[in-house]
Amino acid sequence: MRDEDISNWIENFDPDGHPPDIYSTFSRDHGNDLIEIIEKFCQELNARLDVFSRRGPSTLDIFEDNHNLKAKYIGQETHTFLRQFLIEPIVESLDYSFLIEARSAETENIWTGEVYPDLRLIPQNWPKNEAVPTIIVEHKNFGRYKQASKELRQDYLEKTTKPVFGVATDILRWGTFRVSEDGNIEHLERASIGKILRQIRQSVNHDDFEFNRESIEIAKLLRLFESIPGTINQD
Prior knowledge:
With 235 residues, this protein is α+β, with helices and mostly antiparallel strands. It has one domain (3-226). The protein has helices at 3-11, 28-52, 59-64, 71-74, 78-93, 145-156, 194-203, 219-226; strands at residues 96-100, 119-123, 135-139, 164-169, 173-179, 185-192.
């Protein structure tokens, strides 16, 4: 590493031990796409509250207390709303297609029973001569990351005898896991977009979602997705 690269690394040092953003295998466009998705999610939430929640919580109330996000305030079951307007657009922007509630036959019969992961991610343009990795997502509503992580482990990762990657999220927090060939469950990466939502919330002025894009730090979420197989990272 050149001296100037070392200086840049020190200047941009991340206390969690990650390299700075310039070493990300994702492009700046991917980061901009994620920011735009989060912005649109906030705008959609704001619009729905205007329609369905004249006497309910405001957007600010929901970002202050996640328990205020309820179906009666947004006109849709919250689990589906969060998946449709945030999780699905995020994974699609990072070059994954997906199956909703993938049955055992769609996950190579790795586990059995009547429980299904919320999503199975499929890397686009995966080499035809290589087995497609199994990547599953378990997501919950705001504030329920521990439950998402627990169900991901107990219902799927602990029951498989094959290598599997898993993503747990409650929207605010994200974590990736891997089952190794010897059956051990490894916690790979964690990331949060809670700060991003707070930044947008703090910039709200008369329900106008204007904010400084340059101040939004999206790198940790990109690094999280770099820890699982994908179109860009095909480990």
